[in-house]
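#structure-requests
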Amino acid sequence: MSKGGPTSTTWQPGWNGGKTTSIRVPIVLKSDILAYARAVDSKLKTDKSRNIPMLKGDFLQEFTLGLIDRYIEFKRHNYHPNQNSRKLDTSTRAWDELRKFQKLVQESPELLKD
């Protein structure tokens, strides 16, 4: 009968890419994160360069674009009107770099690789 407490094993936690760690993720993201991890794992089995491309529809791409959208919505929600404008206008020069980054992530994510 087990007495509880830590036990020793003959194996160390590992993965094709090296050591592993446990993480806590929201349940709603679990399937997406596991799918991404499996895709990375299968890529590393065939390509030892450890170069995982960010393809269209990739989890990281979708996550990044979602963050940009959430940031814009946050700014829109917390916008304080002034005498020049009554609502947030993301077509101004101040938003140029964010729009360029958003377009780059959408259309050419491979350019962001190391």
